[in-house]
Amino acid sequence: MDALSEKITHVIKQQREFFHSGATLEYEFRHGQLLKLKQVIQKYEKQICEALFADLNKSAEESYITEISMVLSEIDYLSRNLKRLMRPKRVMTPLTAMPGTGKVIAEPYGCVLIIAPWNYPFQLLMNPLVGAMAAGNTAVLKPSPQSANTSSIINRIIKEAFSERYIALFEGDIEVNQDLLANRFDYIFFTGGLKFGSYVAECAAKFLTPVTLELGGKSPCIVAPEANIALAAKRIVWGKMLNAGQTCIAPDYILVHESVRSELIKQLKINIVDHFGANPEVTPHYPRIISQNAVERLAELMKSSGTVLFGGNLNKENRYFSPTILADPDPQSRVMQEEIFGPILPILSYKTIQEAISMINSREKPLALYYFGGKEEAREVTRKTSSGGVCINDTILHVGNRNLPFGGVGQSGMGRYHGKHSFLTFSNLKGHHRSFTFADFKFRYAPYKLPEFLKRFL
Hints:
The protein is an alpha/beta fold. The protein is built from 15 helices and 18 strands. The chain has helices at about 5-20, 25-45, 45-55, 60-85, 125-135, 150-160, 175-180, 195-205, 230-240, 260-275, 290-305, 335, 355-360, 375-385, 420-425; strands spanning about 90, 100-110, 110-115, 140, 165-170, 185-190, 210-215, 220-225, 255, 305-310, 315, 320, 325, 345-350, 370, 390, 415, 425-435. It has a 7-stranded mixed beta sheet with strand order 10-13-14-9-8-15-16, sandwiched between helices. It has a 6-stranded mixed beta sheet with strand order 5-4-3-6-7-17, with helices on both faces. Strands 1-2-18 form a 3-stranded antiparallel beta sheet. Helix 2 (about 25-45) runs antiparallel to helix 4 (about 60-85), helix 2 (about 25-45) crosses helix 6 (about 150-160) and helix 4 (about 60-85) runs parallel beside helix 5. The mean pLDDT is about 95.
């Protein structure tokens, strides 16, 4: 065993001892630690923004809106509602379990592992951590090495705020992930791609460890004739080009009714220029692709099929890839088979809504589904398709609603979090029954003599 493996094993052992001491169980401890985390994040807000700019060229405004504010909001929600969430929930007791009472107790799992990706490197590591802390767990964190600057500032925040026996962070490449996953945890929360997510699930299965997998996929966007085309284009451009398309719930491709196709394309072009100017490479509000290799991959996807109607420019050295509209790619081409994870927006036409629904259902279940159009057809699309989440007449916003569970289905993931769902994800919901001793029913015991009238209650 090398030094890193020994360190990981030692930290996990320390965290288990700390957890079993009962220190994390009390409301006062959990609430106090959440507020401490908030204070340290606010202290380092400027440095977090600088790190996100260095990694992804995110403006300070985009960094705050899509990363920092979401974590602070999660802390505020869970700290404000923590007593209510921790309180055992009484349930009805059937006649067969009388005399007695039942309740559900939310208990922490123990030592949890949280593995985060590079695209929203602050939010997607810290948001699950907030849920794990609120639920009373200890945690080991693993940020992505591709967002090294953000990883470094998070490491600084964690070390300043917490002891390793409570919260620990390990930086490094895939070998560190492998070392971590070779150990037994009580829960694993992973955000990233399908391939590595499958590996995480495989490692967890060896210990029968429960997991949440937040993955991705090709999230479709339907634009119907009834849609407000100008507004739809504006909101699609915003959702697609956020973080230069490197968003797991970004609209991956558009299915537009043939009657409004030309107008939608026109409005998409207008809105791209309105948002980022004639040359997005020079605007301070357009992020960069995470690496030169990722730029090359996007270039290959763009070339795989379809006609470039807008954009298609890149600068590998600057990690820049322009907002791009791609018309009529072959449904079997790479750009329509792989999650794009960049600012390429394929557009295909449909004639009937059933045709669009059939195309969506012929693919793996997406993390998100977007629909612009009328209420009745929106209901039909929602009812006849399956996706992690649905957003009608907008994009992305469902992820910002604390009261909605966020997560995938099928190959787009499993498990839910955000708000109370974060607390529940990191809690074992333990059924608790207490029988009273003032009465005891003989029909429970052998030799059984069941009165006829009691059958209706069983």
